[in-house]
Amino acid sequence: GQIVYSIAEETERGASVGNIAKDLGIEAATLSARKFRMITGSSKQYFNINASTGALSVNEPIDREQLCELKSVCLLNYELVLENPLELYRMEFKVLDINDNSPSFPLSEYHINMPEFLSPGARFALPNAQDLDEGANSVQNYTLSPDEHFYLEMQIRGDGSKYPELVLKKALDREQQATHRLVLTAKDGGNPPKSGDVPVIVTVLDTNDNAPEFEHSVYRASILENSPSGTLVVQVHATDLDEGPNGEVRYSFSNTTSADLQRMFSIHPHTGEVTVNGVLAVQRPLLEMLIEARDNGAFGMSSTAKLLVEITDVNNHGPEITITSLSSPIPEDAAPGTVIALLSILDKDPGENGKVTCQISENLPFQLKPSLQNYYSLVTSELLDRELISEYNITITATDLGSPPLTTQKTVWVQISDVNDNPPIFSADAFDVFVEENNPLGAFLYQVSASDPDIGENGRVSYMLRNSTVAGSALTSFLSMNLANGSIYAKRAFDFEQLRSFHFQVEAKDNGSPALSAATTVNVYISDQNDNAPAILYPTSQNGSVAVEVVPRLADEDYLVTKVVADDEDNAQNAWLSYHLTHSSDSTLFQLSPHTGELRTTRSMRSTDFLKHKVVVVVRDHGDPPLSSTVTVGILLADTLPQALPDFDDSGEPPPLLNTTNIYLIVSLACVSFIFAAFIFFLAIIRL
């Protein structure tokens, strides 16, 4: 008997499919006694039968796209064998498609070159999206992001397939906009629908306004599966209306053609001849490739045509390698002898041609052990270390005993999962950080870095400040740290005069279980800025009054009037002080030492010197920029200290000898004297 079931792909494990006992008219209680078993050529056991009730349920979710690839109908065939008496029932499971795959494009982005002088209506082929689903769940329509220069139209090839075309709606101007960025979206017909998009970048060019045109939009060819390299498949031809290099056409496979097909076939760039380039190791009877014709202009234009190649089968069967069970990833601390995979190797040829030997490379930490008939176990042969090798591509080679022998290879990708066996490692045992005082709040100081060769949470490193104190305060009042990247920031402004250096520890901890950690020391050195002006300690003034020094009236030359004493809290050259005399009521009477600040007389005092003098002294440091302070000193010439000090608020300079009144008196006196002399002279002449 035979029975057919239908089941949707991705049906969860344990879901009921039917009751095999009821459907076949078998008593469920006899299943165990009759030693029932299910036989299938599939690599996985997708269904289970309950021996007590005969209920048929899902044992492993089915991925229709992985199981049947591009087949329109996906079937799984099982055989139910019962003993006492021996009976054989055939079961056929039709796997129904669901919309579990989104449309996708072969490339991450597409580039189109367009001359700026193309007229509206020019067309450019856009890439087709691929959707592993079938029927209504496959790609149904395309949309294009809004743009004033372009719109989207669907075209139909000679074989009935649809493809999108980009149509120029408005003339382009490269000088106004050289690049247009569009988004092409493909939607399937599922419920709910899924979509995928790809950027389409249009570059506006200045030259070459005609693209090559193929004689046919679709080329068809048929070749034998074992055709030798060099066999001619088809010759394509395209013409270009341009002249010179712009009209010379070169042929190549489009980027959307898979790399496997580009390795199997080659195309002559000048003649357009497509030939076999290697072994046609394909399982599909129909191959689809896109051929691009591009001219040799400075900015080549291109067009595409579809090539459909039908592969005619020949009678040759190689060994078939089926992975019935695979454990991946496996932990890196797995003990030697751990089973990774169970393989089934079968050759459909009879006799010696169907006998198979199997092996893997000897330089791998794995080995194959024969199990049941036609079954092998892939086990570890030594300890693994993910930090050295994180994954293995194990190539299993199966060779039959035919003449000539046929060989099949299958690669098993085994990932090694991480175990938290490595603590974080800092790039240095200690880090020195130099920061200027008066830094802004939140200023970035330094970034420590630690690496962990583990991956995932085991290798994700976080940072923290270890509890400590600085100058009697908690470290967290001075600093903060970004837990994710180890950046250290200042929470307050540092003052070199208060704190010149300090150190603390940073701990790096991974997120494994249990977590591993490491610590390093960070030394912070605060450098000085010229932020303190010199402070004048002597002479001092109170309430804004002038400091007064008394000097004997007849003091000798180089007499010490006073010494200006100043201090600067800064360090190094910022605290180097110099003294300058910026003002003096008598510049010939006093001098100031620039290094010691001593104010001395330049000559002996005279009785004609004024009794009051005033000088202004500037004390300047050597910072960049320099800071300064001034002090005004009043000097009184007196042999004894007077009971009341005079007022030094005036300039201390002598009054001018000639003022306006004195000039008038002198002129008047001169006039009277001249008149008197003239009168005497006149009397003398008369008497004579």
From TrEMBL:
<feature type="domain" description="Cadherin">
    <location>
        <begin position="427"/>
        <end position="536"/>
    </location>
</feature>
<keyword id="KW-0106">Calcium</keyword>
<feature type="transmembrane region" description="Helical">
    <location>
        <begin position="663"/>
        <end position="686"/>
    </location>
</feature>
<keyword id="KW-0732">Signal</keyword>
<feature type="domain" description="Cadherin">
    <location>
        <begin position="106"/>
        <end position="214"/>
    </location>
</feature>
<protein>
    <submittedName>
        <fullName>PCDC1 protein</fullName>
    </submittedName>
</protein>
<dbReference type="GO" id="GO:0005509">
    <property type="term" value="F:calcium ion binding"/>
</dbReference>
<keyword id="KW-0677">Repeat</keyword>
<keyword id="KW-0130">Cell adhesion</keyword>
<dbReference type="Pfam" id="PF00028">
    <property type="entry name" value="Cadherin"/>
</dbReference>
<keyword id="KW-1133">Transmembrane helix</keyword>
<dbReference type="Pfam" id="PF08266">
    <property type="entry name" value="Cadherin_2"/>
</dbReference>
<comment type="function">
    <text>Potential calcium-dependent cell-adhesion protein. May be involved in the establishment and maintenance of specific neuronal connections in the brain.</text>
</comment>
<feature type="domain" description="Cadherin">
    <location>
        <begin position="561"/>
        <end position="648"/>
    </location>
</feature>
<keyword id="KW-1003">Cell membrane</keyword>
<dbReference type="GO" id="GO:0005886">
    <property type="term" value="C:plasma membrane"/>
</dbReference>
<dbReference type="InterPro" id="IPR050174">
    <property type="entry name" value="Protocadherin/Cadherin-CA"/>
</dbReference>
<keyword id="KW-0812">Transmembrane</keyword>
<feature type="domain" description="Cadherin">
    <location>
        <begin position="6"/>
        <end position="105"/>
    </location>
</feature>
<dbReference type="InterPro" id="IPR020894">
    <property type="entry name" value="Cadherin_CS"/>
</dbReference>
<feature type="domain" description="Cadherin">
    <location>
        <begin position="215"/>
        <end position="321"/>
    </location>
</feature>
<dbReference type="GO" id="GO:0007156">
    <property type="term" value="P:homophilic cell adhesion via plasma membrane adhesion molecules"/>
</dbReference>
<dbReference type="InterPro" id="IPR013164">
    <property type="entry name" value="Cadherin_N"/>
</dbReference>
<dbReference type="InterPro" id="IPR015919">
    <property type="entry name" value="Cadherin-like_sf"/>
</dbReference>
<feature type="domain" description="Cadherin">
    <location>
        <begin position="322"/>
        <end position="426"/>
    </location>
</feature>
<dbReference type="InterPro" id="IPR002126">
    <property type="entry name" value="Cadherin-like_dom"/>
</dbReference>
<keyword id="KW-0325">Glycoprotein</keyword>
<keyword id="KW-0472">Membrane</keyword>
